[in-house]
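Lab notes, practical 5.
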Amino acid sequence: MQADLNFFIENGYWVIPDALAENEVAALNEAIDVDRVEYPQLWQVRGEGGRQQSVAALLSSDAFDGAIRHPSIWPAVEEIMGAELCFEEFSIMVRQAYAGEPLAPSWHRDTAHWPEHAYCVKNLSVVYYLTDVDADSHCFAIVPESVEDKKSAPDQRDGDRGVEVYGKAGTAILFNAASCHAGVVKRSERERRTVHIYYGHRSQPILSNHTLCPRRLLESADSGERAFYSRPNLMTQLVRDNY
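Output from the prediction step:
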């Protein structure tokens, strides 16, 4: 783990091949297929070369729960985030096959840097590839940036030094959500599927109100899981307290 952590310190991301087994990838893809058929209204069409996204999949199925604290990524998430680790957001993204001219990537940062944190991480994101990703398919890309760089709180948002990340289905990418990154859309005959999870610190402001967290997670019999979900966003709080 130390070599991978050192790479994260120097670059702001960490790739874990084979984080999900083939049967786990298949189960998640099947759950996505069911969700898209049964709850199409909850899938937003975002444009950007056929991008579709759902932030509500945790409500319709428990098939996605295990990916959030999966044992293949969890030690790395805990090491990076520290004792106040908590859940922030969950979504699924589908980028359809695309026959047009490649689009210019929308380089962005999801959140601010936190220089006081050991690794300058206010929010950590994990992306699971649920389809094979290579140079000929849509992919995730990130601009490498070290912890020392982040201490100066840079806010450049160009992809001149961007690195495309490839991997087969089941690959997990952990990255500092304050790093400059983008989804790269290419002319491709293949659909790309990803799961996106965000983690935060209980002492820090909530990242978003996108994901409504179900009671089975908020009120889990497992004390560690309850602690992880113990700082719900405003939308989840209102539903929990009033319905």
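Observations recorded by the TA: The chain is about 25% helix and 25% strand. Residues 29 and 130 are 7 Å apart (CA to CA).
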